[in-house]
Amino acid sequence: MEPDLPYLGERHSRWTLWASLFARGLILGSLAIAAWFGLNALPDSINPFSPIELTSDVGALTNLKLRLLQPRYEACLATIKRRSISIERKEIVSTEKGCGMEKGIVLKQSPLIHGSQLELTCGLGAALLIWERNIVVPESEALLGSPVTRVRTFGTYSCRNVNHAKAGRRSAHAEGRAIDIAGFDLADGRKISVLKDWGKDTPEGRFLAQVHDGACSVFNVVLGPEYNALHKNHFHLDMSLWSVCK
To answer: Which residues have C-beta within 8 Å of that of residue 59, sequence separation ≥ 6?
Structure first.
C-alpha cells in the first residue's frame, strides 16, 4: 500500500519543472564552456576551428581550413595581406555562361616569381601561397640543395571547357579556381620541368613527386601526368568542391 503523501499543489510541480530545466541548462552550458576552452587549448594544427595562416604548417586539417576560408572573401583577403603579399581585388565579368570571377584577386607580388600577375580566386591564392611556402621551397632545399625562386605556370583564369573541349562542362579555370604548374626555377639556375623530369629516379623527379603529393593536402583537386596524357606537362591544382588526387 502506497503511503498517503500530502498534496503539494500545482505550484510545487511548476517549481520542480523549472528547477529541472535550470539544472539541465547549467549542465549543458558547463559542457559547452569546457568544450570551447578545450578546443582553444588545442594546437592550431589539430584545432579545426582555429583560423589558417599562410605560415601554418601543412597537416591533416589544412585542406578543411582552406575550404572554410574560401567563401569568406574578406577574411581570405586579410589572411593574405597579413603576410605582406601584394594583391588587389579583382572581378571578371563575362557574357559567356559559366565564366567569370565575382570575388577574386590579382596576385601582383609574392615571395616566388610567377612570370606574370595571376588572376584567381582568393581561396586558390591562399592555397597556392601555403603550398609554395610550406612544401615547394622546403622540398627543393632538402632534395635539390637550392630553393625554388620561380614557379612556371600555364595560367589561371580562362573561359573554357574542361580539356579545351568544344562542348561539355566548364573547367575550374573558367571561374579562376585552378592553376596549371609547368615547372620550377631554382636559385642556382637549374630548371625543373614536369614534362621532362616527372617519373624519373633523380633528385628532380623525386622533388616533383613530393610537391605533387604535398599538394593533395592543400588543394581540393590535384591532377598530374599519371591522370591522363593531357596532363603530361603540368600539375592541375584547383579549389573546386570535390576532392581528387591523381
So the answer is: 45, 46, 217
Calculate the alpha carbon distances from 108 to 79, 81, 94, 149, 183 in Å: 16, 12, 22, 15, 20
Question: Model-level pTM?
Answer: 0.81
State the residue for C-alpha cell 528547477. 19
What is the grid cell recorded at 116?
Answer: 606574370
Exposed (0-12), middle (13-18) or buried (19+): which is 139, by Cβ within 10 Å? Answer: buried
Strand order in the sheet with 101-109: 86-92, 101-109, 118-121
- Structural domains of the chain, count: 1
Residue 144 placed within a domain = yes
30 belongs to a structural domain:
no
Does 215 reside within a domain? yes
Range 109-131 burial, b when 16+ CB lie within 10 A, else e:
ebebebeeebbbbbbbbbbbbbb
User: In the chain, what is the greatest distance between 2 CA atoms, to the nearest angstrom?
Assistant: 98
> Along the 246 residues of the chain, how does pLDDT read in single tens digits?
434 434 444 444 555 455 455 545 544 554 444 344 454 556 666 677 788 999 999 999 999 999 999 999 999 999 999 998 999 999 999 999 999 998 899 999 899 999 889 999 999 999 999 999 999 999 999 999 999 999 999 999 999 998 888 888 999 999 999 999 999 999 999 999 999 999 999 999 999 999 999 999 999 999 999 999 999 999 999 999 889 999
Domain span at residue 173 reads 48-245
